[in-house]
Queue: 4 jobs
Job 1
Amino acid sequence: MSEGKKTAREIIEGYDGPAVRIMEVCGTHTHEIFRLGIRKLLSKQVELISGPGCPVCVTPVSYIDEAVYLALEKSVTICTFGDLVRVPGSKKSLADARSEGGKIHIVYSPADAEKYAKEHPEEEVVFLSVGFETTTPAGCLSVKKAEEEGSQYCLESRDIMPAAADEVEEAEEEGITNYSMLIANKTMPQAYEALKGSADIFLYPGHVNAITGTALCEHLAEEGISGVVAGFTAKELLTALAVALTHFQKGKPFFVNCYPRVVTEEGSKEAQRLVDTLMEACDSEWRGLGIIPGSGLRLRDEWDMYDARKKYQVPKMEGRANPACRCGDVLQGKCKPSDCKVFGKVCTPQHPVGACMVSGEGACSAYYMYGRE
């Protein structure tokens, strides 16, 4: 059968080219490739390694310490995704803070957190905003909604309380005043640059590229960094891996969008404009990678009333990770989870030592759940 007529599975199983390391940038890709049994199809020349695409996993220890501080020292209600609750901080997790009386409220989106703040005006509410380009727009929307609902409240109050005009005007300027975000959102471009020597091919996360477009990936290919954008179904993952292996044998840097039904060259302009309006780039700490210049996001000055660090004057935290944990090495593709001495022994999903075992997108949780190769 000619190469052009081979199926994606046949290309993957029959690959006999040079050894190649493919980095699953996205934690969901790691889990799906395991769950679908795709790893069992790979020839011995192909090595899949995990990358920094799990937002909970790359969030530094110091961020958890900040959240614990807000819960216990400032008595705010923390609204968070469930994965973050059990991630260890330097001394305590949010689960520990909750056992000591801290109020930790699980939500499924920033909109849920903003709604909770509106419905509980007597509480100070902080949403733990983590994630990449995919989730950042939702956080921005929650801030805009908080501001707009403050304005709506004022329009209604002018008729009801004309004598309180000064208070109404102040509320209009501030919006919902009991809602803010502790921000650790990150962007992927600088991470790709920092990791460009860690793998031969990047398996780019399709949902991120749906927002950002493909221009960056095309530029990286010009710099010698190869990659393919992949979707999340079995067919889409097999196709992306087959395309990657076929192009790799040609010996030249490449980029291919294997998720064209969702990812376009320009991405989501509306989401990009929204984020640019409310946020600006800043340096950011990544677990295992250290501080990567320009890889983080923060609210612009005109929106800083929704910045929890400024609102509550959170002191600078120097987080200390458990020295036995190798999450940082896993996120850089330097080792597999099973290479860590505490993996599956001291560190399990029930008693996690590091973030990669806690998160539903973490590489360690995937290896523990599906196989410990």
Job 2
Amino acid sequence: MDKSNEFKKKVWCGCLFSYLITFVVSTTKYYPMQEKVQSPKKLTIDSIPEPDNLEDVVFSLMVNPNLSTINYFNDFSEDVITPERLESDNPDESGIFELEATGQSLAITTHAVHHHLEDDPKTATEILISRAARKMLCFGAQPVAVSAFLYHIDFADPNGHSIAKGSKQGLENACSHFNLKITDRKIRFDHFKGHGPVPPTIIVSMMGFIQSKECLTTGTFSQKGNNIFMIGRSADDIGASEYLEFYHGISDSPLPAFDILTEVRIQEVLRVLHQKRLINSANPVGKGGLFFTLLRAAFPNNLGFDITTDAEIRRDAFLFGESMGRIVVDVNPEMEDEFVDVLTEMKVPFFALGHVTRGEIRIDDISFGYTDKMSSGY
């Protein structure tokens, strides 16, 4: 075959290949990686009936393992968790440890979320970072760095790109507001569905350091008579709460109320309170809402609490809602005036809840029993 015919053959093959590609592209249904985050859930608190009997809610939620004061991870080898072992279980969740070689104290905490990552990945990731930072700051540690791992992103789902992009934006925005360094970020795509439906999940690990051991603060009540305050503002909100899912059986709901600028202010006031040593304990309002945050603080020393709810907020939302930007602290009566002055000067809202008791739990002058009796209920 002469060179002329060989050249014509190559040109013809090239044209045929180009035609086939054009045909395939023009006739194939194409799904671009577009912005396709699902719309937020429309459920509102007004559509949820408020329970008449709070005691029924409390004891219904007490059997929820996510709200237990027991560290189940330490007890996987045990067949039965007994009330006797309950007293010896380590409730410390500070994540603080000391390097033997240098004596430097560090802190680490790990948090994950999957439930609402598909609905609003940016806000869900911001909430995740905020929770981790808030918890670390409560104990007196200064968060400095974050590592993030996003996995189970469906490679073939157009929504997968949006989840990854939104999570990235949320991570970067939260870290920018909180002055955190992102040390590592990874993503794992799923190329097939052979392992069954697994929701997209993001896990973050946060590292912090202890500037001064004198600023370290416990998460447990230690003295009867101390006054209990909530720093931050409550909201008529029960979105994405254990209460809504476990008691009402509703899992599809909006993310809890959240404002990242409020989180920044909460962090600032916590640093000042630690520096001035004005608080005895500090806990972020987390799983189970205010009631279970108080219970976790009271339980280790068999103390209790006597509190009054906010008349402007639904009682179930006030006690069991998981809106962000709230801290529970207890303060010695001698330090109360200075504590109030600091929050007033920094223009941070707070609410006087009540005081630490010898063991009884009272809400709005109604007794819910004693913490040592509640342990038997588990």
Job 3
Amino acid sequence: MKYNKLTFPYKGESHDFVHEGSYKVVREDLEEGVLGEADNDGTIKIDKSVKPGSKKEKEIIVHEETHMNEMEAEDEDGNKLLAYDDDSVTDNIAGKTYKRKNGKLIDNDTGKEYEEGDPKLPHESRAFAASNKIKNA
């Protein structure tokens, strides 16, 4: 997927629309402690507490865009590189599947529990690597 130049904020939209490209960014009240979410419908949600146009907002968008790119891309067998639903997360790059339960991801192979968004999860590690380029710039 091509890189989308981010424009903050997009003027004239009544629904807090921030950017349009192959995805869109909207502002919502997210769960406590959650600053961003990538949805299967091509929407990146940013918590309303994040200052529009801030470096933090750009970090969040790059992080979530990494997830979106992986959710759109397929391997040679036609499997999404990253797939999720309400019950599970499948990371075909790392060859891992996690069950979702009470805000945690449980590794199907080891039974180890992780908080959603834990940077030790392979898909989160890749997204943090991307967003840290903005953070550390």
Job 4
Amino acid sequence: MRWNELSDENCSMARTVSVIGDRWTLLILRDCFLRVRRFEDFQERLGITRPILASRLKKLVDEFVLVKVPYQRRPLRYEYRLTQKGLDLYPIVMAIVHWGDVHMAGKKGRPLLHTHDLCGKDFDPVMVCSECGEPLTPRQTHVHPGPGATSPRHLPLGTDAPATRRFLAFTQIKDMPEQTIRRPLRVADLDDHLRAHPMHPRQHQR
């Protein structure tokens, strides 16, 4: 898989990484949430070259994560502000910060404290279930194909083979030859079609 192909992957993680996965981009986003908005301020804080900074900011603007807003007319200059799409990255940024606080802070402790304005308390970010409110852990969750899935390739290892076949059947039956669909559909027809399909697990083992 090439870097410039990530946005075409049938995977939300890969598509997100295609936008924010670059190390400079993550640090730019960190500063955006620290209310840094102007090109010169980004450059001074990050120590980044102007061409690299300009490229990363353009990418974020093109992806509607940031928007350029004029703050000076003569000469015309812009500042970069988070859109709603950009603000929705806050949990991701905070999760990275929290991981760094826990595992990389060193003996002196975390370099920044985050305070919740509504309660006035310093906090740690917590990911909870949207339905029951309980904290989420990897041992208490599982995944299954969603309505936008087109391939079983990103399902967990050990996924039930019959379930994978049913998934392929429902998503790929529209691609079956017209002459096959005209007559009553037999299990053998479906099996033959699925085994020949490039997304079938057997095809990936070759």
